[in-house]
Predict the 3D structure of the following.
Amino acid sequence: MRGSWGGIKTLPLVPLKKVQTTSGKKAKGRALVIYVKQRLLHYFGFDSDDIILPSVSAPGEDLKFSSSVRAVFPYSVECKNQEISKALYDWYDQAKSNAGNYEPIVVLKRSRQKPLVLVDLDHFLSVVKGNENE
């Protein structure tokens, strides 16, 4: 709504976009890393000490695995907890709506890049463990 202030026309106030602090972004990312660790412990029964969460600013993998974990789970984990990936969730929702009784996946590709597969974390862990029907 336009108003007037001392004869000067004013424009309506536009709400400012909430800006997330660096510490808030790190906490959000850390929450996902903790969640992934918990899921790995749940599916495979690893000892909690076998999966280390490095400090937030440490370079390298988001989860450090002992050799006993690597023997069972030979993957390098990078966690991204960002709203920028909204399109991926839209695609996954589309795959879910078309999947019927099957597990939905999304195959995505960018120019000059290898195709990637997007799948639910719990389903992926079940497949790795060998319990595809879980």
Notes: Residues 19-81 form one domain.
